[in-house]
Every structure is written in C-alpha cells, then in structure tokens.
Amino acid sequence: MDGKMCLLAGDAVDYKGFPADKSKTGGWVSAALILGIEICERLSTMGIAVNLVTYLGGTMHLPSSSSANIVTDFMGTSFLLCLLGGFIADSFLGRYRTIAISAVLQALGTGMLAISTKLPQLRPPPCKDVTLETCEQANGFQMGILYTSLYVISLGIGGLKSSISGFGTDQFDEKDEKEKAQMAYFFNRFFFFISLGTLLAVTVLVYIQDEVGRSIAYGICSVSTFIALLLFLSGTKRYRYKKSNGSPVAHISQVIVAAIRKRKYILPSNVSLLYEDCPEASRISHTEQFCFLDKAAIVAEGDFEESKGPASTPNPWKLCSVTRVEEVKMMIRLLPIWATTIIFWTTYAQMITFSVEQASTMERSFGDFKIPAGSLTVFFVGAILITLAVYDRLIMPLWQKWKGKHGFSHLQRISIGLVLSTIGMAAAALAERKRLSVAKAIKNDHPNSDLPISVFLLIPQFFLIGSGEAFIYTGQLDFFITQSPKGMKTMSTGLFLTTLSLGFFGSSFLVSVVTKVTRSNGGQGWLADNINNGRLDCFYGLLAVLCFINFGAYLLCAMFYKPSASKRVVQMESVHDASAENKC
C-alpha cells in the first residue's frame, strides 16, 4: 500500500481526474512538450519585436521615437495581459486549456501580421527620397490593421506566458526529493530553451525578414506555433494537472474586505483564538507583519451562514482563516521585490529599439556578408545562453559542494542581474558617445552611408544586459513561483511578468518625457528622428543613474524580506533544531 502511495504525485491528477501516477505522468518528457510551445512563442514574439522598429521606420515611415514606443507598447501590453491570463487560468479554464486557446490566438495573430505586411494596400508607397520629410506616413487604416494583428498576438502571449512555467512545474512533485531537484534545474533549462527560440528569431527569422520577405517570416511563425500546439495536445494523457482553488483575486478581496469591516476590533493576545479551518498539513504559520489583515480572522457574531448540514460555514467576506490571511500577506511581501525589478526591463527595452537603430547606422560587414541590424541581438541571446550554461554546469555543482545549495538564491540572482544592467547602460552610453563623435566628424562628407565604425562596438552593452537577463529572469521566476501560495502560482507568474510590462511602458513614458523636455527650446533633443543628430548617450547615461538608485532600493527590500513557512516546515525545523541541541 505504501509503495503504491509513493507512486502518486501529491495533489496532482491525470487527465481523467484520478490521482496522477508518477510512472505514467509528469517528469521531463511532459515538461519538454510544454517547453516546445514556449520556444515557438518566443520565436514569434522576439522575431517581431527585435526587427519591428526597422519596419515601422523604413516601410511605414514613422519617426524614430514613435517607432520605439510602438514596439515597447506592444511588448508592454503583451506582458500586462499575463495578469488576465493568470486570472482566467486560476479561476475558470485551468492552465492546460489556457495554453491551448492562447496558442491558437498567437497563430492567428502572426498569420494576420503576415498578410498585413504582404499586401501593398496595407502600407504607404515607397519614399521618393532618402529623407524622412518626403515620405508619406502610414494612414490610420493601415496602422489599424497592424495594431489589430499585434494585439491579437499580445492576447496569445498573455495566456501562454502566465501558464506555461506554472504548468511546467506542475509536472514535478515538490514532496519527492528526486523530482524536487529536477525542478531546481527546470527554471534554468526553461529559460535556456526559450532563449534558443530567441536565437533563431534574431538570426534566421530576421534574415528571412530582411532578405526574403516579412510575410514569409511571419508565416513561418504562425505555422510553427500551430505545429507546437499539436505536439502539446499530444501529451494530454501524460500531463499532471493541479486542481484550482478558486479565484485568487476573490480570495485576496475577501481578506481585505473582512479586515476593513472589522477594523475597529481588537486583536486577541493569543493567536490561537483566530479562526482557522485549513487541514494541519497545509496551514501557514501566523506572522506579525501586516497585522491589520489579521482582523479578518477574528470570529464575530454573524460571521457564519446558516446551512442545512451539521456545521455552519463562514461567510468568506466576513471571516477568513489565518492561512487565507497569510496567503495574502505572502503576496504583499512580493511587491517590494516586484517594484524594484521593473527598471531592468526598461533597460532591456533599449536593446530591441534604440540599440537596433544604432546598429543600422554602423558598419555591419562580416566578410562579404552584411549583418542585418536586428540580428545584432544575437550577441544578446548568446550572452544569455553562455551565462545559463556556465551557471548550470559549473556554478551550480560547485555551489552544491561548497554551500550544499542548488546555486545562488533567487534574491542573489536578481541582484546580480541588476548590477549587470547598470554596468551595461554605462557601457552603452560610452559606445554611443564614440559613435556620435564619428557621425559628427563625417556628417558633411557621407550623409547617407553607414558610419565608418564597426557595429561590434555595441557588443559590451548587449552582452552585459543579456547576462543580466539570464540571472534576473530565472531569479524572478523562481522567486515568484516558490514564494507565492499554492493556489496563486499562476497569478504570481502573471505578477512577475507585469514587471516586464511596466518596464516596457516605463521605457515608452521615459522616451516621451525626455523627447518633450529636451526639445523644449526648438531643438531636436536627445532622441531626434535621426539618432545621428541626437544625444542618445545622455539618455543611456540617465538610465544608468536610475539603475544605480534602483539597485540601492532593491538591497533594502531584499534585506527586509521575510518568507512565510507552512506549519509542516516549521515543525520539521523545530525537530531538526531539537536534534541538533541533543547532539551538542
């Protein structure tokens, strides 16, 4: 009987709703099928994002700052919709169905984009001259079709990204030491494989866009997503599914409403007098932080609803258990770390907008081959892959032997990412200053040709920000999934992905403010339509300063972060401490 129980995967069920058998469900095979659809999602998303700015400027004839903001708004909306995707997955559809439907939306959106870039009626006529002033900009109808395609894709991205990582971790049993160790490697390998998708996007896909045709490239994205969906559906019988505990938004709202209703009540001196109805094994220990919310667990007259059964049930909008209150506290504790990681993604946004524009003005020849400007981000992706490989194969085993832990903690990885991004923006400012000096020196002699300065000057900024992403993405993903309540993991993943969203929107906001302020005297400002006439180095310098200030704020938040522990963990730690005292 015990042997049979060991084959069951905790609180997971199979596709028929029976307890999941470990020998037939879950594990790396199931995780690989899930990762396949994420690779295609990243192929489509990054294939569009890294080269869209050149399409908006070169084909749709939009100004530089407007093109950059359209790209960052598209990416920002995509990640913001992860909150909606997480809510739908947790409350209604479940992760499996959310992934399937979102993949269909992604395939449809990229198909629409392929058509919109193919038909000549959906773009303005080519320029008669090389200067932007003589070009006819895209009209409202043409931009409307483009926006519709992009935001259908955004809906798909929101559903996929909010659910894939959580559904992937569902394939491993945290109570099984062997599978728990596999899960520790899952976060790094998850990001490693989706970075392979990005690598294909910025090399093969960007090359196809520039040399063969954008419609062909976007059509490939649509078809590959559909194939990945079929592979994903083929694993239906192999997956492990976690039952939903209801809407996390409703649970959070209930605790807040109940606490406000009882704001005038006095908390009992003995915590055991607070209401608790969760099973002993799944309870979360009471903590002193945010004690105002504890009032939601004070038992008062009228809190219980009459029922026909032997026991009355509490009205969740008037009375909440200590565990439910602690779940809300856990989510609140995530917010300071959440807020201080947003700035990284603002710096990241520059790598797919202004850095690509920088590359388009520089000498990009490699022998007889001319590197597409969008493909320069291959160094960015290469940095991610190298960093993850070194961390996975070298640092993690050494750290295991030295400290007995599976690599750096999530907070340590985030801090490393923030430091690298600060140095990366400083390097970007220096590189841009050098590029501008060359542009000004030959302005009158070569107004329309590439600047005689190698594009490889931009490698340091791509490499530093790419390495930073490797640390911060895996650190954030690990932090938000492992430090959130069980029933809110999809929502917490969506919360993590909103840092990307707000980072992109923050970039758009910062670009708009800087453009308005620096053009106040009638000049072209820091972010001119032609970046050779602007001061992009000052903009990068501003970002480096903001990153440095933000890192100080992050260190303070990390120092004061206190994770919650379940009753079971607390009891195990107490037993361990008692054993240690006896040995002494």
TrEMBL record:
The chain crosses the membrane at residues 70-89, 95-115, 190-209, 215-233, 334-351, 371-391, 411-431, 451-473, 494-514, 539-561. Pfam families: PTR2. It is found in: Membrane. Its main location: membrane. InterPro entries: MFS_trans_sf, POT_fam, PTR2_symporter_CS. GO terms for molecular function: transmembrane transporter activity. It is a multi-pass membrane protein. Belongs to the major facilitator superfamily. Proton-dependent oligopeptide transporter (POT/PTR) (TC 2.A.17) family. This is Uncharacterized protein. It comes from Stephania cephalantha.
